[in-house]
Amino acid sequence: MSTKKLTDKVALVTGGSRGLGAAIAKRLADDGATVALTYTSSPQKADEVVLAIKAAGGQALALRADSANVEAVKNAVAETVKAFGRIDILVNNAGVGAFALIDEFSLDDFDRLIAVNVKGVFVATQEAVRHMGEGGRIIMIGSVNSDIMPIAGGSVYALTKGAIASFTRGLARDLGPRGITVNNIQPGPIDTDMNPADGTFADRMKSITALQRYGRSEEVADMVSYLASAEASFVTGANLKIDGGFAA
Ligand SMILES: NC(=O)c1ccc[n+]([C@@H]2O[C@H](COP(=O)([O-])OP(=O)(O)OC[C@H]3O[C@@H](n4cnc5c(N)ncnc54)[C@H](OP(=O)(O)O)[C@@H]3O)[C@@H](O)[C@H]2O)c1
Protein backbone atom coordinates (compact mmCIF):
# COMPACT_ATOMS: atom_id res chain seq x y z
CA MET A 1 0.00 0.00 0.00
CA SER A 2 1.32 3.40 -0.97
CA THR A 3 1.49 6.07 1.72
CA LYS A 4 2.22 9.01 -0.59
CA LYS A 5 0.42 12.17 0.45
CA LEU A 6 -1.59 12.59 -2.77
CA THR A 7 -2.43 8.95 -3.42
CA ASP A 8 -5.92 8.61 -4.97
CA LYS A 9 -6.01 12.32 -5.90
CA VAL A 10 -6.52 13.56 -9.47
CA ALA A 11 -4.80 16.77 -10.55
CA LEU A 12 -5.20 18.92 -13.65
CA VAL A 13 -2.27 21.22 -14.41
CA THR A 14 -2.73 23.79 -17.19
CA GLY A 15 0.37 24.54 -19.26
CA GLY A 16 2.19 21.43 -18.06
CA SER A 17 4.49 20.85 -21.01
CA ARG A 18 7.35 23.15 -20.01
CA GLY A 19 8.70 25.34 -17.23
CA LEU A 20 6.83 25.60 -13.95
CA GLY A 21 3.89 23.48 -15.14
CA ALA A 22 6.10 20.54 -16.12
CA ALA A 23 7.86 20.60 -12.72
CA ILE A 24 4.50 20.88 -10.93
CA ALA A 25 2.99 17.96 -12.89
CA LYS A 26 6.00 15.76 -12.08
CA ARG A 27 6.00 16.75 -8.41
CA LEU A 28 2.29 16.05 -7.92
CA ALA A 29 2.77 12.67 -9.62
CA ASP A 30 5.74 11.97 -7.31
CA ASP A 31 3.40 12.71 -4.42
CA GLY A 32 1.06 10.00 -5.73
CA ALA A 33 -1.49 12.02 -7.73
CA THR A 34 -2.79 10.99 -11.14
CA VAL A 35 -2.07 13.97 -13.40
CA ALA A 36 -3.66 15.46 -16.51
CA LEU A 37 -1.78 18.35 -18.11
CA THR A 38 -2.61 20.73 -20.92
CA TYR A 39 -0.41 22.30 -23.60
CA THR A 40 -0.87 24.31 -26.79
CA SER A 41 2.19 24.29 -29.01
CA SER A 42 4.57 21.72 -27.50
CA PRO A 43 3.06 18.21 -27.94
CA GLN A 44 6.49 16.59 -27.81
CA LYS A 45 7.41 18.30 -24.53
CA ALA A 46 4.02 17.37 -23.09
CA ASP A 47 4.58 13.72 -24.10
CA GLU A 48 8.02 13.80 -22.45
CA VAL A 49 6.45 14.90 -19.16
CA VAL A 50 3.84 12.12 -19.41
CA LEU A 51 6.52 9.54 -20.21
CA ALA A 52 8.70 10.70 -17.29
CA ILE A 53 5.74 10.36 -14.92
CA LYS A 54 4.86 6.91 -16.26
CA ALA A 55 8.51 5.79 -16.09
CA ALA A 56 8.47 6.71 -12.40
CA GLY A 57 5.38 4.51 -11.89
CA GLY A 58 2.74 7.25 -12.08
CA GLN A 59 -0.32 7.88 -14.24
CA ALA A 60 -0.57 10.88 -16.58
CA LEU A 61 -2.35 12.23 -19.64
CA ALA A 62 -1.55 15.16 -21.95
CA LEU A 63 -4.40 17.16 -23.49
CA ARG A 64 -4.08 19.85 -26.14
CA ALA A 65 -6.10 22.83 -24.89
CA ASP A 66 -5.42 26.47 -25.62
CA SER A 67 -6.36 28.30 -22.41
CA ALA A 68 -7.64 31.18 -24.58
CA ASN A 69 -10.24 28.85 -26.12
CA VAL A 70 -13.25 28.39 -23.85
CA GLU A 71 -14.44 25.17 -25.50
CA ALA A 72 -10.94 23.67 -25.40
CA VAL A 73 -10.62 24.39 -21.67
CA LYS A 74 -14.08 22.92 -20.96
CA ASN A 75 -13.11 19.88 -23.00
CA ALA A 76 -9.84 19.42 -21.07
CA VAL A 77 -11.76 19.31 -17.79
CA ALA A 78 -14.29 16.89 -19.29
CA GLU A 79 -11.54 14.64 -20.69
CA THR A 80 -9.77 14.58 -17.32
CA VAL A 81 -12.97 13.51 -15.58
CA LYS A 82 -13.70 10.96 -18.29
CA ALA A 83 -10.23 9.41 -17.92
CA PHE A 84 -9.79 9.60 -14.15
CA GLY A 85 -13.28 9.99 -12.65
CA ARG A 86 -12.96 13.39 -10.93
CA ILE A 87 -10.69 16.35 -10.19
CA ASP A 88 -9.31 17.04 -6.71
CA ILE A 89 -6.58 19.56 -7.55
CA LEU A 90 -6.60 22.24 -10.25
CA VAL A 91 -3.35 24.12 -10.87
CA ASN A 92 -4.00 27.19 -13.02
CA ASN A 93 -0.45 27.57 -14.31
CA ALA A 94 -0.73 28.34 -18.06
CA GLY A 95 0.21 31.95 -18.65
CA VAL A 96 1.79 34.26 -21.17
CA GLY A 97 3.70 37.54 -21.03
CA ALA A 98 3.91 40.54 -23.34
CA PHE A 99 5.96 43.61 -22.52
CA ALA A 100 5.72 47.07 -24.08
CA LEU A 101 5.26 50.65 -22.94
CA ILE A 102 1.62 51.77 -22.75
CA ASP A 103 1.88 53.87 -25.95
CA GLU A 104 2.98 50.81 -27.90
CA PHE A 105 1.00 48.01 -26.25
CA SER A 106 -1.23 46.42 -28.91
CA LEU A 107 -4.87 45.59 -28.26
CA ASP A 108 -4.23 42.12 -29.69
CA ASP A 109 -1.61 41.47 -27.01
CA PHE A 110 -3.90 42.93 -24.35
CA ASP A 111 -6.72 40.60 -25.43
CA ARG A 112 -4.37 37.57 -25.52
CA LEU A 113 -3.05 38.20 -22.01
CA ILE A 114 -6.57 38.64 -20.63
CA ALA A 115 -7.79 35.54 -22.50
CA VAL A 116 -5.04 33.20 -21.26
CA ASN A 117 -4.07 34.65 -17.87
CA VAL A 118 -7.54 35.64 -16.65
CA LYS A 119 -10.47 34.26 -18.67
CA GLY A 120 -8.81 30.85 -19.11
CA VAL A 121 -8.33 30.65 -15.33
CA PHE A 122 -11.99 31.57 -14.74
CA VAL A 123 -13.28 28.93 -17.17
CA ALA A 124 -10.97 26.15 -15.93
CA THR A 125 -11.93 26.90 -12.33
CA GLN A 126 -15.67 27.09 -13.02
CA GLU A 127 -15.60 23.79 -14.89
CA ALA A 128 -13.29 21.98 -12.45
CA VAL A 129 -15.20 22.85 -9.29
CA ARG A 130 -18.29 21.14 -10.73
CA HIS A 131 -16.33 17.89 -10.20
CA MET A 132 -14.61 18.76 -6.92
CA GLY A 133 -15.67 17.69 -3.46
CA GLU A 134 -14.64 18.40 0.14
CA GLY A 135 -10.84 18.73 0.36
CA GLY A 136 -10.55 20.10 -3.19
CA ARG A 137 -7.71 22.44 -4.07
CA ILE A 138 -7.52 25.35 -6.50
CA ILE A 139 -3.95 26.61 -6.86
CA MET A 140 -3.17 29.65 -8.99
CA ILE A 141 0.24 30.51 -10.36
CA GLY A 142 0.07 34.29 -10.18
CA SER A 143 3.17 36.44 -9.88
CA VAL A 144 5.01 38.69 -7.47
CA ASN A 145 4.48 41.23 -10.27
CA SER A 146 0.92 41.79 -9.06
CA ASP A 147 2.51 43.61 -6.10
CA ILE A 148 5.80 44.86 -7.53
CA MET A 149 6.65 45.64 -11.16
CA PRO A 150 10.16 47.06 -11.08
CA ILE A 151 10.57 47.59 -14.84
CA ALA A 152 8.63 49.60 -17.42
CA GLY A 153 6.54 47.71 -19.97
CA GLY A 154 5.01 45.18 -17.61
CA SER A 155 1.76 46.96 -16.77
CA VAL A 156 -0.62 44.57 -18.55
CA TYR A 157 1.13 41.44 -17.28
CA ALA A 158 0.92 42.91 -13.75
CA LEU A 159 -2.76 43.71 -14.33
CA THR A 160 -3.56 40.09 -15.19
CA LYS A 161 -1.68 38.75 -12.17
CA GLY A 162 -3.35 41.35 -9.93
CA ALA A 163 -6.69 40.04 -11.20
CA ILE A 164 -5.66 36.53 -10.12
CA ALA A 165 -4.77 37.73 -6.61
CA SER A 166 -8.20 39.35 -6.23
CA PHE A 167 -10.00 36.40 -7.83
CA THR A 168 -8.29 34.10 -5.30
CA ARG A 169 -9.67 36.03 -2.33
CA GLY A 170 -13.22 36.10 -3.70
CA LEU A 171 -13.17 32.46 -4.76
CA ALA A 172 -11.99 31.37 -1.32
CA ARG A 173 -15.25 32.86 0.02
CA ASP A 174 -17.35 31.09 -2.65
CA LEU A 175 -15.75 27.71 -2.11
CA GLY A 176 -14.90 27.71 1.61
CA PRO A 177 -18.33 26.40 2.63
CA ARG A 178 -17.69 23.41 0.32
CA GLY A 179 -14.34 22.62 1.98
CA ILE A 180 -12.37 23.64 -1.12
CA THR A 181 -9.31 25.86 -0.63
CA VAL A 182 -8.10 28.48 -3.12
CA ASN A 183 -4.59 29.89 -2.99
CA ASN A 184 -2.33 31.94 -5.24
CA ILE A 185 1.40 31.25 -5.50
CA GLN A 186 3.29 34.38 -6.54
CA PRO A 187 6.71 33.49 -7.89
CA GLY A 188 9.54 35.92 -8.40
CA PRO A 189 12.02 35.31 -11.24
CA ILE A 190 12.11 31.58 -12.04
CA ASP A 191 14.46 30.17 -14.68
CA THR A 192 12.17 29.03 -17.55
CA ASP A 193 11.75 29.74 -21.27
CA MET A 194 9.55 32.70 -20.31
CA ASN A 195 12.21 34.24 -18.07
CA PRO A 196 15.62 32.63 -18.62
CA ALA A 197 18.28 33.16 -15.96
CA ASP A 198 20.64 34.34 -18.73
CA GLY A 199 18.04 36.55 -20.49
CA THR A 200 17.98 40.30 -21.18
CA PHE A 201 16.50 41.23 -17.79
CA ALA A 202 18.37 38.63 -15.75
CA ASP A 203 21.09 40.78 -14.18
CA ARG A 204 18.53 43.41 -13.16
CA MET A 205 16.23 40.74 -11.71
CA LYS A 206 19.04 39.14 -9.70
CA SER A 207 20.15 42.50 -8.31
CA ILE A 208 16.60 43.18 -7.02
CA THR A 209 16.30 39.72 -5.45
CA ALA A 210 17.51 39.36 -1.85
CA LEU A 211 18.96 35.92 -2.58
CA GLN A 212 20.66 37.35 -5.74
CA ARG A 213 19.60 34.44 -7.93
CA TYR A 214 16.74 33.02 -9.98
CA GLY A 215 14.48 30.37 -8.50
CA ARG A 216 14.08 26.87 -9.93
CA SER A 217 10.76 25.48 -11.12
CA GLU A 218 11.14 22.65 -8.61
CA GLU A 219 11.23 25.18 -5.76
CA VAL A 220 7.81 26.46 -6.85
CA ALA A 221 6.57 22.88 -7.28
CA ASP A 222 7.48 22.26 -3.61
CA MET A 223 5.03 24.99 -2.60
CA VAL A 224 2.33 23.57 -4.87
CA SER A 225 2.90 20.16 -3.30
CA TYR A 226 2.34 21.64 0.16
CA LEU A 227 -0.81 23.56 -0.82
CA ALA A 228 -2.24 20.49 -2.57
CA SER A 229 -1.77 18.31 0.50
CA ALA A 230 -3.82 17.80 3.65
CA GLU A 231 -1.09 19.71 5.54
CA ALA A 232 -2.47 22.95 4.05
CA SER A 233 -6.08 22.27 5.04
CA PHE A 234 -6.48 25.63 6.87
CA VAL A 235 -4.75 27.77 4.22
CA THR A 236 -7.16 29.53 1.87
CA GLY A 237 -7.56 32.91 0.20
CA ALA A 238 -3.80 33.39 0.55
CA ASN A 239 -1.45 35.11 -1.83
CA LEU A 240 1.90 33.48 -1.11
CA LYS A 241 5.15 34.86 -2.47
CA ILE A 242 8.02 32.58 -3.42
CA ASP A 243 10.41 35.16 -4.75
CA GLY A 244 13.81 34.90 -3.09
CA GLY A 245 13.07 38.24 -1.44
CA PHE A 246 12.31 40.06 -4.71
CA ALA A 247 9.59 42.05 -2.93
CA ALA A 248 11.33 42.27 0.46
N1 LIG B 1 9.14 32.19 -15.00
C1 LIG B 1 8.89 33.19 -14.16
O1 LIG B 1 9.79 33.96 -13.78
C2 LIG B 1 7.51 33.40 -13.62
C3 LIG B 1 7.37 34.26 -12.53
C4 LIG B 1 6.11 34.48 -12.00
C5 LIG B 1 5.02 33.84 -12.55
N2 LIG B 1 5.19 33.02 -13.62
C6 LIG B 1 3.98 32.37 -14.15
O2 LIG B 1 4.15 30.98 -14.11
C7 LIG B 1 3.38 30.37 -15.15
C8 LIG B 1 4.27 29.45 -15.98
O3 LIG B 1 5.31 30.24 -16.51
P1 LIG B 1 6.66 29.60 -17.11
O4 LIG B 1 7.74 30.52 -16.73
O5 LIG B 1 6.74 28.17 -16.79
O6 LIG B 1 6.35 29.82 -18.66
P2 LIG B 1 6.88 29.03 -19.95
O7 LIG B 1 8.23 28.50 -19.70
O8 LIG B 1 6.65 29.96 -21.09
O9 LIG B 1 5.85 27.78 -20.06
C9 LIG B 1 4.49 28.10 -20.25
C10 LIG B 1 3.67 26.83 -20.22
O10 LIG B 1 2.30 27.25 -20.37
C11 LIG B 1 1.79 26.70 -21.58
N3 LIG B 1 0.95 27.65 -22.26
C12 LIG B 1 1.29 28.87 -22.76
N4 LIG B 1 0.23 29.42 -23.35
C13 LIG B 1 -0.79 28.54 -23.22
C14 LIG B 1 -2.14 28.53 -23.63
N5 LIG B 1 -2.68 29.54 -24.31
N6 LIG B 1 -2.90 27.46 -23.33
C15 LIG B 1 -2.38 26.39 -22.66
N7 LIG B 1 -1.10 26.34 -22.26
C16 LIG B 1 -0.33 27.41 -22.54
C17 LIG B 1 2.97 26.32 -22.41
O11 LIG B 1 2.54 25.28 -23.27
P3 LIG B 1 3.22 25.02 -24.73
O12 LIG B 1 4.54 24.43 -24.41
O13 LIG B 1 2.31 24.07 -25.41
O14 LIG B 1 3.32 26.36 -25.38
C18 LIG B 1 3.97 25.89 -21.33
O15 LIG B 1 3.73 24.58 -20.91
C19 LIG B 1 2.75 31.52 -15.94
O16 LIG B 1 1.44 31.75 -15.49
C20 LIG B 1 3.66 32.69 -15.58
O17 LIG B 1 2.99 33.92 -15.74
C21 LIG B 1 6.40 32.76 -14.16
Overview of this protein structure:
- The protein has about 250 residues and is α/β, with parallel strands linked by helices.
- It has a single domain (about 10-240), classed as 3-Layer(aba) Sandwich (Rossmann fold).
- Helix content is about 40%, strand content about 15%.
- The protein is built from seven helices and seven strands, in the order E-H-E-H-E-H-E-H-E-H-E-H-H-E.
- Strands 3-2-1-4-5-6-7 form a seven-stranded parallel beta sheet, with helices on both faces.
- Helix 1 (about 20-30) runs parallel beside helix 2 (about 45-55) and helix 4 (about 105-130) runs parallel beside helix 5 (about 155-175).
- The longest helix is centred in the middle third of the chain and has 23 residues, at about 105-130.
- The N and C termini lie far apart (about 45 Å).
- The relative contact order is 0.15.
- The model has no long low-confidence stretch (mean pLDDT about 95).
- It binds NADP nicotinamide-adenine-dinucleotide phosphate.
- NADP nicotinamide-adenine-dinucleotide phosphate binds next to helix 1 and strand 2.
Low-confidence stretches: none
Strand order of the largest sheet: 3-2-1-4-5-6-7
Whole-number average pLDDT?
Answer: 97
Q: Let me know the CATH homologous superfamily.
A: NAD(P)-binding Rossmann-like Domain
* DSSP strand content: 5-15%
By DSSP, the count of extended strands is 7
Please tell me what the overall shape is: globular
CATH topology call? Rossmann fold
Task: Report, as a whole number of angstroms, the end-to-end distance.
Answer: 44 Å
Helical residues, percent: 40-55%
Structural class by SSE content: alpha/beta
Give the oligomeric state. single chain
Bound molecules: NADP nicotinamide-adenine-dinucleotide phosphate
Describe the main β-sheet briefly: 7 strands, parallel
Listing every helix as H and every strand as E from the N terminus to the C terminus, the arrangement reads EHEHEHEHEHEHHE
Q: Radius of gyration from the CA trace?
A: 17 Å
Please identify, by name, the CATH architecture: 3-Layer(aba) Sandwich
In the CATH scheme, the class would be: Alpha Beta
* Count of the separate structural domains: 1
